[in-house]
Structure formats: C-alpha cells, structure tokens
Amino acid sequence: MRQMESISLFFICCLWVFTMHFHYGAMEIFTALEDVQNIMNAERKIVDILRMLVLQSDKPRRAAINSYINKSKDIFESPDADPEHIVSHPLNSFRLVKHFSSGWENLRKHLEHDAGQATLIKIEKLRRQARFPETDAIAGAAQGFLRLQRTYRIRTEDFAAGNLPGITKASALSAVDCYLVGHQQLLDGIYDYAASWLEIALQKWPKEKRDPLSSIQKSDILNSLQLSYYHLGNVWMALELCKTIREVDPFYPNITAKILTYQALLDGTTKWSVNAMKLQARPPPVRVDNGLRGFLCRGEDTSVRY
C-alpha cells in the first residue's frame, strides 16, 4: 500500500506541474521534461548576458542583477537541478516557476532604463522563444499545493519544510515563498489554509536575509494574515495583527481605519464571544479531503465494516 501511495503522489505531482506551470494551446502535444530543459538552457544564456551588464550598472541595479544571477546559480548547481527531478517535485517546480516569472518581473524593473534597455530586448526574445512561465503560474502552483495538502493531509509545516509523503525531500520554502502561497489561498477564499501558510511565513521572516529583488515586507505578511483571521470570524486576532502592522509600519495603507473598524466590531460583541476568539487556535485547524479520492490516494481502507 505504501508503494501505491508513492506512485499515486508521484503521478499527481507530475500532472500538477504539467497543468499548472506551462500555458499552451489545448491541442498541442508537448513533453514537460523538454519544456523545462529548454527553459533552463535559455536561462543560462540570460545569466551570461546579465553578467556583462553588471559591469556597467549602478549599485542598486548591480545588487538586483547579482541576486537574480545567484538564484539561477543555486538552481543550476543544486542536486535538484535535473529537469526530471524538477518535474517530479512540486516544491522544486514552484521555486523554478517563481524565479522565472515573478523573479524576472522584479528584475525587469531595474532594466527598463539607460544601458538596461538593449539587454532587456535580448532577454525578452530568449524568454519568448523558450516560453517561460508567466506570473499567473504562481497562482496555479499555490492551488496545486492546496489540492495535494487536502488530499494527502499534509501539515503546512511539513509541506513548507519540503517533507512530502512518498517522494524525496526537497529544500524548504522561504518566508516569501510561503507568503505567496498563503496570499493566493486568501485570494481564493481558502482562509484556513491561507492562515496556516502565512503563519509559517511570519515565523520564517526574521530568520532570513532580505532579497533585493523582492518587494514583500513583514507588514504585507501581517496584513494578509489579519484578513484571513477576519474572514475566519476572529476579529480580535485581526485587530491584534493590525496593531502589530502599525508598530512595524505606521504608514501602511489604511491601517488606522482597519483598527478603528475592528475595534468598533468588537465593541458590539459580547465579552464571551471575544474571549472565545482569544482562545481559538493559531493557526486554525484546516479542512482535509474526506472524499473517496482522498482515501484512495492516501491508501486508506475504504471498505465498510459491520
């Protein structure tokens, strides 16, 4: 049964990468491994171009370019760099998609002026030819994570740490990675899973070095987290998180208005209800797939006993 579980998860992982990360016409025939290999070959050429640009860049642009190059280097020199390994593991795929989509978009802003424009044209041509994933692929990846979590009852802590049942352990996700997953769950209205991912992001945040390419701040994590708790009905927790946001960033958009709104809601709530909110688990328990598909994928006994 354990072997069946491993095979089932491997199949789902491959299908997940195949459907979520690359956008093609419905009638086209393609091979996911070849797609990944083509993209990685193009990325090596892009890195060579960027290395030449570093020499003629100012300090902020140089820091952004070096950050992008170092991430590419980590991908190419990692034991997980083999395309087959990437396709077979959701976390490796997510990191690759994030780097090639949002990572590039963040770097692109630094190349839109002066000496970077000619370089930008060359790189965009390579990206079009290799059919790099777009930023919306991250949303699909986060939705794929949710399906795997619900089906296999994987704890968010284990998922974020790279521990998935039936497949080789992968490197842990970063705070920003966890934020992106949690924020997408928030947008999709999956508030329990959003809160669990955003709590992990918040735990990881102080332990990690800031990325020059990322615009995500601690206040962004806190804001998405407070919204998740608000939608889960815990206004008290949402208020406490908003107060923390104000301490971290007093000028965060609309933060004072949110605090006043939540305080007004709590003022109209019974003391018993507020105390109940304070006692709620953080993060909250999440829903799992209790349907037949979930039982079968987990290898559980579905027979009826009398």
Structure explained in plain terms:
The model is unreliable at 1-31, 292-296 and 301-306 (pLDDT under 50). The chain has 15 helices and no strands. With 306 residues, it is mainly α.
Question: Which sequence of SSEs, written as H and E, runs from N to C?
Answer: HHHHHHHHHHHHHHH
Considering DSSP H and I runs of 4 or more, what fraction of the residues is helical? Answer: 55-70%
Distance between the termini: 23 Å
How large is the share of residues in beta strands? under 5%
Question: Average pLDDT across residues?
Answer: 82
Structural class: mainly alpha
The main β sheet shows up as: none
Radius of gyration from the alpha-carbon trace, in angstroms:
22 Å
Unreliable stretches, pLDDT < 50, 5 or more residues? 1-31, 292-296, 301-306
- Number of contiguous helices: 15
- Give the CA-based shape: globular
Number of strands: 0
